[in-house]
Specification:
This protein has 240 residues and is an all-alpha fold. It contains nine helices and two strands; from the N terminus they run αααααααββαα. Helix content is 59%, strand content 2%.
Length: 240
């Protein structure tokens, strides 16, 4: 009979919750783009809410029976909801020190924007209908290349899967270049948190513009959001 050593977990120095709370309380002060990301989600949430009220009630039927315009409107509102919730998730994860993990949500938001652009360019409504049925309207990599986001998708894909190389930002390689020490506790500043929040800040108004195009309306970017985005187009965050 084979016997094995028994590992007894020692929980005393693993106070994740205390560290998460401490990091989250300091995040709005330490991260200059925190407020921008928060305003960004509010901007998109408001636009999506107002436009969703303009969609006429659909009588009972099949998704395949939807007119192209109605299908595009319904699908785009759904994508907007994903972006709003994901920006909230990014704020929470980044705030609590899980910066590496928040990149997966950034990847989903990038995909949502690409799919939104596909909806805009598809007069048949087929892209929207496929999304409403939970199906992919073609390869995301091909679509990303078409809309100039292929490098972003390739980079973020690593963090959306169990890719061990994605642990490098929170690891320290040993001298033999094989073994490495991983930081398991949440931390601030390992994976450019302010830059991630800046990108989240861009995603809200960017997708609101997609909605405006699909619903054929104008869209006014809130003054604070517009000023901040203009500012960061001209000033670097220096990897914060």
């Amino acid at each position: 009979m084979t016997t094995h050593d028994v590992i007894k977990p020692d929980l005393k120095h693993w106070d994740f919750a205390k560290r998460e709370r401490g990091l989250f309380e300091k995040a709005p002060v330490q991260l200059p783009t925190w407020r921008l990301a928060n305003f960004s989600r509010k901007t998109l949430a408001s636009v999506a809410e107002q436009l969703s009220e303009r969609i006429p009630q659909q009588p009972r039927g099949l998704v395949d029976d939807l007119e192209p315009k109605r299908a595009a409107q319904l699908a785009s509102i759904g994508l907007a909801a994903i972006v709003v919730r994901n920006i909230g998730g990014i704020l929470t994860l980044v705030g609590c020190g899980y910066e590496r993990e928040s990149l997966a949500l950034g990847r989903v938001n990038a995909e949502a924007h690409i799919r939104g652009r596909q909806i805009v360019d598809d007069a048949s409504g087929d892209v929207a209908r496929r999304l409403l049925k939970g199906r992919r309207p073609g390869s995301i990599n091909a679509a990303a290349t078409r809309y100039g986001s292929d490098e972003d998708i390739k980079f973020l894909n690593r963090f959306a899967h169990a890719d061990l190389l994605s642990l490098r930002p929170v690891s320290v390689m040993r001298e033999n270049e094989i073994d490495f020490d991983i930081q398991l506790l949440p931390q601030r500043g390992a994976v450019a948190p302010a830059t991630q929040l800046l990108e989240a800040g861009r995603q809200g108004p960017a997708f609101a513009s997609v909605l405006a195009e699909i619903f054929e309306v104008g869209f006014e970017v809130p003054r604070y959001v517009d000023e901040q985005l203009r500012y960061y187009r001209e000033h670097s965050l220096d990897g914060v």
